[in-house]
């Protein structure tokens, strides 16, 4: 295969470091940017520079923020007695899209995973426990993923928060709307049955 010019090869390498972008996709993106007019390429570069310069993490909940506090923590309309704990800022966006939750958030920045050497101190668990104690939180909703690490994190948080009198809950897990029972796995069915409610 012919060698790419060094700047183009470097762009391909940088693009391939993005999550979900393999070498072929990185190459297609690089050639797309090469064909794009200069203004569009410079606009993309400026948008990336602006994000790195202006966006950080909220001092209170570790969500993304432009400034010291995120828009949710800055709002006086949110219920400060309920905190929803999530793994990443993307989870905050997903829950906010439902328009069903009016409390505050706390982003752990990962999950407990002893295999990977990640314990409670490597994510924001100590800060969560301190915040829950100091701010008079009544309920913590642990909305971590329903995988092994997410469940381990949820159990750890429940055991840490319950002794200080904070109600710890977990979102219901179960069958998706439009899902067929015959295709559901055993864990999903078990959760659906355990979390059943009257209607």
Could you list some keywords that capture this structure?
Dna Topoisomerase Vi A Subunit, Chain: A, domain 2; globular; 6 strands; 12% strand; single chain; two-stranded antiparallel sheet; alpha/beta; 2 domains; 199 residues
Give an overview in words.
Helix content is 44%, strand content 12%. With 199 residues, it is an alpha/beta fold. A hairpin with a 6-residue loop joins strand 1 (56-57) and strand 2. Helix 1 packs across helix 2 (23-35).
Beta-strand content: 5-15%
Rg computed from alpha carbons, rounded to a whole number of angstroms: 22 Å
**How many H/I helices?**
8
Return the domain count: 2
Share of helix, binned: 40-55%
Largest sheet: 4 strands, parallel
Could you report the average pLDDT, rounded to the nearest whole number? 90
